[in-house]
Amino acid sequence: MKQRRDGGHELGELDDLLQHRARIAAAVLLSRHDQLSFSRLKELLDETDGNLGAHLRKLEDAGYLTVRKEFQERRPVTWYRLSPKGRRALASHLEGLGQLIKHAGGGRDR
Fold first, then answer.
1. Which residue range is the domain that position 74 belongs to?
2. Which of 31, 48, 55, 97 lies 20 to 30 Å (CA to CA) from residue 86?
3. 89 three-class SS
4. CA dist list (Å): 28 to 2, 4, 15, 41, 71
5. How far, in Å, CA of 18 to CA of 22, rounded?
6. How many domains are there within the chain?
7. Could you read off the pLDDT of 44-62 as tens digits, one per residue?
8. For 70-92, how does the pLDDT look when each residue is reduced to its tens digit (9 = 90+)?
9. What local confidence, expressed as pLDDT, does residue 6 receive?
10. Domain contains 7
């Protein structure tokens, strides 16, 4: 967390794209696994196809995810993987959240 001249802190390291529950949860899950399928992410996150697809597309458009499509037993399967850029963004965002939590006491800057 960045220190301001007045001794307060800025929230500049929080990534706007990772502020939504579904997007940060997907990024965290993907950081713990090599890759996950759309159907597995849908199951774990309890999201509808449309909502999950929209959130994953935003992460993909930002370069945070890589996507691979294939067929398994004549059925399409879409695999998602967290990219190096996505890993860096997630690590920075989690660090910012940690700093925010650390400094969130009593309503005053420390």
1. 2-102
2. 48
3. helix
4. 24, 29, 14, 11, 26
5. 8
6. 1
7. 999 999 999 999 999 999 9
8. 999 999 999 999 999 999 999 99
9. 46
10. yes
Average pLDDT value for the chain = 88
Query: When comparing pLDDT for 46 and 105, which is higher?
Result: 46
What's 72's domain CATH number?
A: 1.10.10.10
Dump pLDDT digits (tens) for 32-41. 999 999 999 9
Query: Which residues lie below 8 Å from residue 66, measured CB to CB, with a gap of 6+?
Result: 60, 80, 81, 83
What is each CA distance from 12 to 1, 27, 74, 77, 107, in whole angstroms? 7, 19, 46, 37, 19
55, with CB counted inside 10 A (0-12, 13-18, 19+), is buried
The half-sphere exposure of 91 on its side-chain side, counting CA atoms within 13 A, is: 9
